[in-house]
């Protein structure tokens, strides 16, 4: 078995140092699972997945899990060699190509900002719904559905989590523990209650069939669209890698946390999807009124108020948690890019006492607020929201895919050293990378030929990245784009980095 050399540590100024050795494996795993936010993902996406594949949604979840798991394995191997908070951006730049690495980082930042804009809207909507349910005399149904109130409450949540991320990684992790406990206990509790009722003799609305788990039971185009949503389902575990510089055992724990969280998430997604299909009719899934409210409708099939209010609380806690843990990777990624001299210098500013990239965090939150305001101007917020989720899934598939290919390329010289290295550092990341890039290309082609407006967020993001990349190249003074890429080689039984080629 190969041993790993000391991790690569780039030269960093003392004033640009984050708070090291703070998070243990459990903290990092909680942050990874919280970043995915199962309750939020189910509330926002499961009805959309059902619209594409019907009762085969468990199959879509399973198929989506496989390539993303392969990328999680790639993250594990790349993080072992280079625990940099820029994660994918840093690894792709260092091992594949700095231009591709920068562009990959830009895609991730864009996905994060889009999500930071959509998540507060969901948090605001569910918070107002909860207040209307608990205090109907004080908060009317009209007020609960008012888009300006929803946006205002969502912005307040965004401000709160921004303060916590700025205040410190420890307070952020502690808050995540609380939110994850609320979310998981409630979602699992309702899911198990549904399954137990059916096992106990209650008639199932939809009888379990093998087609639920068979991806071949749906058309390729519908399955591909559902897979993009499935990638969105699992997106977020890589936050564990973005907090690696603040973690204990920085070269091991973040990668382990990512893989562990993937299996935890697969379990809860499958249990919840199966339970929902047992008690919710196909007409109810297809009802537009349930498109982003399906979890609450699910709870209503199992219990009456006030117990059903718990599911609203679960979605609120989940959405707030993932909002916070999306700011985390955004601020760490932009910090890493600014530290390398390829992003505005302000993003590398670290608070003297809290040791967090506070300026970059606030700037990201402000950009998200701008997108929220733009969303308010739309007459069909639900349509914008649905398209936004699909486009985020496409952007995630792009940077995940590039990372998988970069992993195979980085370890290409040692893949013949053993079956384990060949399979886990080479073959699986490559398969996952190619599959996700192909998926993103197909979805964009499909959107282009059917309704170009659904493809615009991704196309605009990609187009905007080109002049920004040129600007980064022109203004860079650190030699980042002229650095020699590295590959990992075996020296005296230890993996180490060796220069491979210069980039002109």
Automatic annotation (TrEMBL):
GO molecular function (one): transmembrane transporter activity
InterPro entries named among the record's database cross-references: AA/rel_permease1 (IPR002293), APC_superfamily (IPR050367)
Membrane topology: Multi-pass membrane protein
Keywords assigned by UniProt, alphabetized: Cell membrane, Membrane, Transmembrane, Transmembrane helix
GO cellular component assignments: plasma membrane
Transmembrane parts of this sequence: 29-53, 59-78, 99-128, 148-166, 178-199, 219-237, 258-280, 355-377, 389-411, 423-443, 455-474
Compartments, record wording: Cell membrane
Pfam families per record: AA_permease_2
Protein name in the entry: APC family permease
Taxonomic lineage from the root: Bacteria, Bacillati, Candidatus Dormiibacterota, Candidatus Dormibacteria, Candidatus Aeolococcales
């Amino acid at each position: 078995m190969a041993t790993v050399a000391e991790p690569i540590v780039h030269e960093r100024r003392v004033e640009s140092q984050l708070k090291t050795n703070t998070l243990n494996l459990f903290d990092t795993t909680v942050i990874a699972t919280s970043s995915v936010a199962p309750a939020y993902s189910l509330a926002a996406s499961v009805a959309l997945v059902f619209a594409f594949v019907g009762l085969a949604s468990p199959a879509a979840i399973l198929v989506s899990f496989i390539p993303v798991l392969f990328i999680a394995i790639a993250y594990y191997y790349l993080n072992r060699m280079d625990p940099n908070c820029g994660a994918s951006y840093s690894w792709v730049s260092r091992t594949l190509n700095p231009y591709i690495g920068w562009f990959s980082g830009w895609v991730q930042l864009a996905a994060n900002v889009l999500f930071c804009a959509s998540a507060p809207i969901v948090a605001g909507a569910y918070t107002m719904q909860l207040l209307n349910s608990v205090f109907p005399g004080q908060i009317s149904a009209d007020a609960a559905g008012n888009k300006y109130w929803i946006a205002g409450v969502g912005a307040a949540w965004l401000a709160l989590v921004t303060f916590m991320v700025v205040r410190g990684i420890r307070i952020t992790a502690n808050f995540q523990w609380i939110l994850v406990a609320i979310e998981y206990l409630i979602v699992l509790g309702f899911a198990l209650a549904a399954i137990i009722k059916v096992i106990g003799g209650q008639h199932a609305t939809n009888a379990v069939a093998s087609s639920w788990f068979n991806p071949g039971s749906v058309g390729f185009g519908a399955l591909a669209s559902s897979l993009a949503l499935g990638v969105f389902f699992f997106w977020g575990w890589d936050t564990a890698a973005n907090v690696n510089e603040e973690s204990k055992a920085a070269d091991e724990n973040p990668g382990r946390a990512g893989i562990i969280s993937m299996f935890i998430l697969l379990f809860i997604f499958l249990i919840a999807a199966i339970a929902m299909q047992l008690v919710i009719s196909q007409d109810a899934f297809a009802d537009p009124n349930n498109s982003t409210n399906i979890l609450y409708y699910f709870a209503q099939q199992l219990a009456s108020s006030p117990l059903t209010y718990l599911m609203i609380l679960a979605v609120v806690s989940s959405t707030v948690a993932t909002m916070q843990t999306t700011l985390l990777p955004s601020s760490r990624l932009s910090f890493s890019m600014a530290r390398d001299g390829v992003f505005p210098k302000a993003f590398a500013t670290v608070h003297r006492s809290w040791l967090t990239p506070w300026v970059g965090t606030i700037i990201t939150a402000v950009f998200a607020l701008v997108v929220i305001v733009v969303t308010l101007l739309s007459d069909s917020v639900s349509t914008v929201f649905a398209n936004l989720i699909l486009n985020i899934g496409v952007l995630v598939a792009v940077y995940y895919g590039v990372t998988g290919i970069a992993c195979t390329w980085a370890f290409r010289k040692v893949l013949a050293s053993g079956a384990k290295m060949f399979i886990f550092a080479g073959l699986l990341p490559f398969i996952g990378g190619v599959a996700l890039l192909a998926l993103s290309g197909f979805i964009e082609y499909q959107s282009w030929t059917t309704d170009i407006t659904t493809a615009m967020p991704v196309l605009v993001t990609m187009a905007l990245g080109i002049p920004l990349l040129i600007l980064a190249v022109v203004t860079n003074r650190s030699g980042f784009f002229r650095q020699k890429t590295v590959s990992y080689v075996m020296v005296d039984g230890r993996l180490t980095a060796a220069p491979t080629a210069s980039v002109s």
